[in-house]
Write a structure and sequence with these properties.
By secondary structure, this protein is α/β, with parallel strands linked by helices. Among the domains are: 56 residues, OB fold (Dihydrolipoamide Acetyltransferase, E2P); 84 residues. It has 7 helices and 21 strands. Strands 6-20-21-19-18-15-16-17 form an 8-stranded mixed β-sheet, sandwiched between helices. It has a 6-stranded antiparallel β-sheet with strand order 9-8-7-10-11-12, with no helix packed on it. A 5-stranded mixed β-sheet has the order 1-4-5-3-2, with no helix packed on it. Strand 18, helix 6 and strand 19 form a beta-alpha-beta unit. Helix 1 runs parallel beside helix 7, helix 2 runs parallel beside helix 3 and helix 6 packs parallel to helix 7. The protein is globular, with a radius of gyration of 22 Å. The termini are far apart.
Amino acid sequence: MSQRADDRPAELTLVTGPPANGGSCVARHDGRVVFVRYALPDETVRVRVVADHGSYWHADVVEVLEPSADRIDSLCPIAGVDGAGCCDLAFATPDAVRRLKGAVVANQLGRLGGYHWCDEADAVAEPVGEVGATGWRTRVRLDTADDGRAGFHRYHSSELVTGLNCAQLPAGMLDGLGERTWPPGAHLHVAIDDDGARHVVQTGPRNGRKSYTQVVEGNYEAVQRVGGRVWRVPVTAFWQAHRDAAALYSRLVAGWAQLSPGMTAWDLYGGAGVFAAVLADAVGETGRVVTVDTSRGASRSARVALADLGCVSVVTESVRRALSMQSARADVAVLDPPRSGAGREVIDQLAAAEVPRVIHIGCEAASFARDVGLYRGHGYIVEELRVFDSFPLTHHVECVAVLTR
């Protein structure tokens, strides 16, 4: 064991334990918890301590001394300890990654939500679509270095890796972009739409209060299709990264909403209104759907795509403020919040509005589990819960729950 001048060891040899939320495994050294990245459970590894948080440390694997049977050669050529932070679980078999994600969600639901989904040993995330672990992403953002080269960030770092062959991306998605010189501080938004066309939009660098935007290739809006309906969504706006996710979640929402003609539905954090479309199909002309998002670009896309649905109202506002303005109770609310989750105030509002059925989608295990606990505190029960491996090669996961009272 080597030692730093501040008495924090530079390197340790550890045996790793269970997975932790965020992509690490838990190990211990002299009673202190060490979160080890780029490790799998039950491995003996030599690690470099990279951060000291007092009661716990963060460390990266330097050498695997006794590997797990689930360890493979990395599926992503640019990811790893000294590489990009894009594919932080690319060194494990896809089946193992799904088991790890399931175990993390089960653990977080128990700890933060007070809810037993299933035993951690039995938990598993479901695959999305048929594409497999690589080539699934349709949208990506690159940043630019001081020398004008585009790249991916290293984990929790401002440094960029300028190799662009990330395994999440389909072949050819970034062709030619690595050979160009871009303004330092610019962002490159790249999308492959459902017509197979590539769109590249540059935003920044900022000049005072002005934000620079330029279409480099293709169009500012990408064509997306779900259930026979067409959306034109800004390349800079939110759309599901996995090419099969939007259709999968739409089918799930349509089935779980249990709506009938004349009912009312709220589509909260609704983006371009993909869920609003299937909710509108269920409530019909005599029903009402309110879809809410803060993004003006997403709201514009929703208004155009859903213009033929007279029962749909598109609201550009925060969910909290939009809920405070609703006079009629919803029969179902669908929420797809950002990584931070919906939180106490919004869930308190839903409970106060006596919404009997909620479909809640979460892309971060801890905030999702916390939100489930908040619902349960208001008397909701978990009727259904599924976990999806919507971001293969990474620790990220998508959870969907139906809560009723």
